[in-house]
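Q: What structure does this chain adopt?
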Amino acid sequence: MAGMASTVQHPVHHPVHPLTVGFDLDMTLVDSRPGIAAAYRVLVAETGVPIDIDLVVSRLGPPLEAELAHWFPAAEVPAAADLYRAAYPDHAIAPSTALAGARESVAAVRALGGRAIVVTAKNEPHAKLHLAYLGIDPDTVIGSLWAEAKGEALREQGAQVYVGDHTGDVRGARVAGALSLGVTTGPCDAAELRTAGADVVLEDLTGFPAWLAAFEADRAA
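A:
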């Protein structure tokens, strides 16, 4: 009858949260080993302290100060870190390269209408220098965070996925309640990443765009 409220029940569509994908930087998006080695060579020259640079670049992931503690007394680590960071822009950016699939992976997030963020233990200014030099343009860069601390930032950003090469990255994803996707381009192999709790492991980022398209289709469904 006219004037009566409709009793037709319309289906309720629950909104899907916008796609947000976090990426680690060193050995996930960027092969920074040549650049980091160059900065360490400057540090050795300036301090006279012998450092096994090959060993250093074989285990990238944890914060700079954690690595320097292997080579300097605790009281000298802050000054050594300052020297290293002062050398970094001039010596570490140009030699470093984008890893296979890095640009395409960030672009794939964007193509799906999502946000690509970088959450890294590297300090933010140097992370941004690497990305700008290599033409990788994430929406947000958050630096100076490691392992579980990455998880806090990922949660604040609403990330559903965190992509990294280290077991510390897996721990960060876990804290955030995000899916952990590991790549074996860094110091940790597939078995280590899976043991740490990675949900998905890829050899490198070249397979990431196809994986992400399937993930987003499942999420939309």
